[in-house]
Amino acid sequence: MSQEALFPKNFLFGGALAGNQYEGGFDKDGKGLSIVDVEPAGPERSQMLAHPKNYLNIRDDLYYPSHKAIEFYDHYKEDIRLFGEMHFSALRISVNWARIFPNGDEETPNEAGLEFYDQVFDELEKYQIEPVVTISHYETPLGLVKKYGGWNNRKLIDFYLRYAETLFKRYGSRVKYWMSFNEINCITGSPFIAGALVLDDVPNKIQAIYQASHYELVASAKATKLLHKLVPGAQMGCMLAFSPFYAKTCRPEDQIAALQQNRVTLFYGDVHSRGYYPTYMNRFFKENNVELEITDEDRKVLKENTVDYISFSYYMSHTTDADHKSKLASEAFEPVKNPYIEESDWGWPIDPVGLRYSLNLLYERYQKPLFIVENGLGARDDIESDGSINDDYRINYLNDHLVQVAEAIKDGVDLIGYTTWGPIDVVSAGTGEMEKRYGFIYVDRDNKGNGTLERRKKKSFDWYRDVIDSKGAVL
Ligand code: BGP
Hints:
Belongs to the glycosyl hydrolase 1 family. This is 6-phospho-beta-glucosidase. α3 packs parallel to α5, α7 packs parallel to α9 (205-230) and α13 (352-366) runs parallel beside α14. 40% of the residues lie in helices and 13% in strands. The relative contact order is 0.15. It is α/β, with parallel strands linked by helices. The protein has one domain (12-470): Alpha-Beta Barrel (TIM Barrel), CATH 3.20.20.80.
């Protein structure tokens, strides 16, 4: 126990969620289908993500967890009350794009979809929880894939902007912190999820991935411009999935491998924060026959509209060496085991010190405020015979990470806040299943969608409330 407050008074503490992983109601009140609504659960999911072409229609023989998720759509009052009980000061949510523009290309938004989020924001206000909003969290409307080919089409910039403008006008008075794209860098490894790309028959996938990335980067910069114009004082952040790469040894070649692998992610932070393409990309593009369509107007927009802050998810670090392939599009990255680090049940390295390292690295590189918008342990939880759930493993994970966050603040890092991933159990983005749980609140729903949906507090529930109340003194 530190006995002293480790986090500043106005520090934002809370949790983070994504519409498709907890809302359910996938076709309610006029919502259209989004890409995740055709992603099945279980082993079929990885099959689908690798070859999406034949999976773009809902099939009767497959189970789609995002259709019901944990049915927050009907339980939002109860769930937000529980977040209030933990004394959250912030909740990061995403607006589910296809609730607002069902096919993505309509001229006018779906009023019923907008009203749903009005109600969610009203409810958050009751408990003085500040909403933090991701505009696009792996939820591109499916219509934009079928009709336009996803983010490989420049037209998506305009559809995205129409959607973003709708949100800024409707919710701008209630939301200060916005994020343009969740984990934008994940497009390199998961082009369907993060870029709505169907690349089954595309010969140069790297070309397609970086062209789509470019359009997303331009869309993000244009949205930043619009936000600043429409909502003075509001802030736009980029959002990276950040897992720093360590070199396996002090062999110079291994250091280069780690440097290059880090650039796969940092490229997205660099463009967002500096407003231009880093020169290290030139060689990579040349070697991979990538020729991007970038206009003078694009360059100007990127240059003039950099982000206000850098947000990121942190779950793990990685290790690499010169003998393992290090490419800037990381589809084939092979992890090297780090002997100093344990792994979760899902093989994710657990490295709290890596979070301090990441905070320092990102702050030094960008010199902009940072926001940790996801962190947590996915684990299987057991209910004891007395009904309790003793998730000490989750408490330990979060405790150790928060101690390192406090160290980074002492190092001089300017940090806006910390929101844990999935404060209530949600469908896993990776597996599409329920058994990988992150929550302080257990939800009775299994991998097949069975269960009462009862919400039950885990041991970590009280622990996290105490952390928030004491500003970290109990850590
Ligand atoms: C991030 C996503 C989240 C979330 C989290 C945990 O990549 O932004 O949507 O799901 O990872 O991943 P998983 O659900 O696969 O455990």
